[in-house]
Known about the structure:
Elements: H1 2-23, H2 29-38, H3 41-60, E1 67-73, E2 89-97, H4 103-115, H5 118-169, H6 177-207, H7 239-247, H8 250-270, E3 276-285, E4 298-306, H9 315-381, H10 387-421, H11 423-439
Antiparallel strand pairs: 1-2, 2-3, 3-4
Amino acid sequence: MIHSKLIKALSLGAVLITSSLVKAEPLALNQVIDYALTHEPWLQANKYQQQAIEAQSIAAGTLPDPVLTVGLMNLPTDGFAFDQEGMTQFKVGLSQQFSRGDSLALQQQALKQSAEQYPWLRADRQAQVKAIVSEAWLNAYRAQKSIQLINQDKALFNQLIDITEASYANTLGATRQQDIIRAQLELTRLEDKLVMLEQQFDSAKKRLAQWLPIEMLNGAVSDENTKVAAVMPYKELAPSGVTEVLMNHPAIIAIDHAMRAKNTQVQVAKEAYKPQFGMNLGYGYRDDTPMGDSRADLFSIGVSVDLPLFTDNRQDQQVNAAIANAEAVKTNKLITLQKLQGQYFKELSQLSRLAKRKALYQQLLLPQMAEQAEATLNAYTNDDGDFSEVMRARISELNAKIDALNIEIDKQITLARLNYYAAAKDNQINAAQSQGANNE
């Protein structure tokens, strides 16, 4: 019995270990992006909206249904006999209304133009999701890498505490009790920083829960392929080239299609000045006379037309409203373009500053910090330095490493944001890659 319980416990432990290893599989940046773009529900909702408008465009280009009327006319009330009076007849009528000018074709065209913006809205959404997901993943990687840096230095701090305690125990040593307290205090601060970074790590991963199942977020993030590839050489791009790139941005192209639809709506409104025609056909059946004489059946045909003579409060205002809507969309395009330009140049300036800071840290600051930490430690071990200087130098070196990491991550996040503004170029690259894969 004991052996069977032991075997079950070991089996359960093996299952739990295997499960934890599966959950702990590192989450790569490209994997996160691909999954998010494939399972983004907004894109499917956008496709349904496009299908709805395309269906409406087909309906809008169709004439209204003809109207069938059936009636009994001029039936005498003194006997309700169908053959008593010559005017009594059973009438069947059919009427059809026609559109004003080309209003049906123009309404159909306007809806088709409106539907054409939806693929561009999806491309814009894909670029947004790519940037947002990349930023969340990079923030998770930032926290994870910072935790690794601190854990690496924790061993050194523990070693320093052991040295100070041994030196303090030795009456010949120069270590004071406050040195031990200082070392323990710094170690406690590192523990607090680790807790804070773990919180940041979890928060960054949970940000991805909007697109990824929670099971994929239980493990660490991958240390491979942490670089964001720049879609374009942003630093070399002239201002005129920036304008050209942004004019081809999916968000701007979508507004262009909306503008065309609104301009067509203006033409639809102007068609209201034209008369609307209608046609009706009627056939009246009459019974024979009471004496048996035959009565001729009756056929009628007619045309109706409405005359838009008083246009001040109806047609004129409808045209004014359509023109105002078109101008509003045109202004929205200008606002969106200016917003994209402002954000682009802001991120470009950020990228330039981060590149300078990265070079400063890599070439000067980090080597200097390492030299200072090593020098203070050597001086202290030779009883020629202060322990507080050793701790201060080590903490400064650790902070410098974390700052250098933050600079690198901020640079990658900035590149991800800049890639959003180059979404048109990114779409071309993705299309070319997909075409190449299909050809293979």
